[in-house]
Amino acid sequence: MNMPTTSAPWAGRRVLVVEDSAVQRGYLVGLLKQLAFGEIFEAADGNEALQLLERERNDRIFLVLTDLEMPGMDGIELTCQLRERDLAENLIVVSARDPRLLEIIENMACEDASIGLLGTLLKPVQLDSLALLLSKVNDRNNDSRPAAPTPAQASLEEVAQALERHEFLPWFQPKIAMQSGQLKGVEALARWQHPQRGLLSPGYFIDTLEGHPLMADFTLLLVQQVLQHILHWQQAGLPALAVSVNLSADNLSDRSFIDRLTALVMQSGVAPASLVWEVTETSVMRQLSQALTNMGRLRLMGFGLAMDDFGIGYSSMQQFARCPFTELKIDRAFVNGAAQWPNRLMVLKSALDLGQSLGVATVAEGVETVEDWKLLRDLGCDLAQGYLLAKPMPADDLVGWMRQDRRRLRALAGME
C-alpha cells in the first residue's frame, strides 16, 4: 500500500509506540513511518510511556499505539492512566491474545469516549487496517454527533424560544434492505439550526427537554415536518418509505399526547403505515401499564412500533415479548465489530434469532464496516443503518443521495 505523504492528515504528527518486544516495536514503528508520521517515540512498558508523556505534556502526543500485555503496567492500566491524565489525543491498542481481551478495551471506550480510542487490532498489525483506524480521526472531527464530554445543555428558556422560532428540524439516516441494497426507510433525527452556533445535535438540548411538558411540543413539531417531507418524497417519485420517529417515555405514557399525535397524522393524509414510532425499554418500563395501552392503540391504527437499542436493558427480551413491536433495532454496541468480537457475535445472533422467530423486522444500527455488513446479511438481518451506508442528512439531500448511491448499495448487497 503506497500512500503519498501529502494525502495523510496525520503527516508529521507525533506518536508513541508502547511495546515490550523490541522486534514488534520496530515493526510498528516501520508501519507508522510508511504512514508519514513525524516524530516517533518508543517505550517498553506503561510506566516508561507515562514518564515520557509527562515530559512531552506541553506538546501533546497525537497518538499512543500500545500493546495490551506488558510487564510492569499492562495496556488496560495504561489506557486508564492516559484517560485520567489526559496525555494523548488518540489511542490504538494491539494484542496477540484472546480477542475478548481487546473487546474489554472496546467496551471501556463505549462507556467513556474520553478514552479517545480509535480501535483495536490483532497482531500481526496490517498497514491497511492501521490506516483504516486512523481515518476515524477525520470521521470523528466531521461527525455531527457530539463528542464526549457531553456538551453544555441549553437552558429551558433557550429551548422554548427555539421551539417558538421553529429552529428544530429533522435530519434523516437511511435504512437499507440487506438482501437487495434498496432504500426501505429512514430514521428522523432531531437537529437544532441555531442562529449563532449553527447546526447542533441532540446532545445540546435533549436532556433539557426530558421530563418537561415542552417535549410534547418538540416531538409534534418534528412529526409535522416529517409528514411534510413524506408527502414531498412521494411527489418526487421516491418508493414508499417508512419513517422512524423517536418517542420519549413521557410521550409514550400520555394518552392526550397520543391523541394529538394521531390527529396530526390523520389530518396530513399520510398513511399510518408510513410511520414507525421508536421507543426504548426504559420508556416502556417507566409507566408500563399506560405505555402498553398507548402502544396497543398505535398498532390498532396501523402504525409501526420499534424497540430501539435492543440488548442494552436488563429485561429487553421480556419487554419485547410482551409489547406489540413490528421492528427490532439492535444496538450498535452489538453490531459494530461483531465480525471481529466473539461476544458481540453471540448477542447479535441471539437478537436476530428472536426477531426472526417472532416474525418482526430486524434492523442493525451502527453498521460501519463491510465485514459487519457481510456478517449481518449472512445472518439474515433485514435492514441496516450506519455510516457505511449513509450519515444523517437534510431531507432535501435524500433524493440525490439515493440516485447517486444506488449502484454502490446494490453492489454491497450482492458481494460475496
Topology:
Layout (H helix, E strand, L loop, with lengths): L14 E4 L3 H13 L5 E4 L2 H10 L5 E7 L7 H11 L2 E8 L3 H13 L5 E6 L4 H8 L1 H7 L13 H9 L3 E10 L5 E12 L3 E3 L5 H4 L4 H22 L6 E5 L2 H5 L1 H14 L6 E6 H6 L1 H13 L3 E7 L5 H7 L4 E4 L11 H17 L2 E4 L5 H9 L4 E2 L8 E2 L3 H17 L2
Walk me through this protein's architecture.
This protein has 416 residues and is of the alpha/beta class. It folds into two domains: 5-142, Response regulator (Rossmann fold), CATH 3.40.50.2300; 156-414, EAL domain (TIM Barrel, Alpha-Beta Barrel), CATH 3.20.20.450. Helix content is 44%, strand content 20%. It has helices at residues 22-34, 46-55, 75-85, 99-111, 127-134, 136-142, 156-164, 206-209, 214-235, 249-253, 255-268, 281-286, 288-300, 316-322, 342-358, 370-378, 398-414; strands at residues 15-18, 40-43, 61-67, 88-95, 117-122, 168-177, 183-194, 198-200, 242-246, 275-280, 304-310, 327-330, 361-364, 383-384, 393-394. The strands form two sheets. An eight-stranded mixed β-barrel has the order 6-7-9-10-11-12-13-14, surrounded by five helices. β12 (327-330), α15 (342-358) and β13 form a beta-alpha-beta unit. Residues 1-7 and 142-150 have low confidence and may be disordered. Residues 152-406 form the EAL domain.
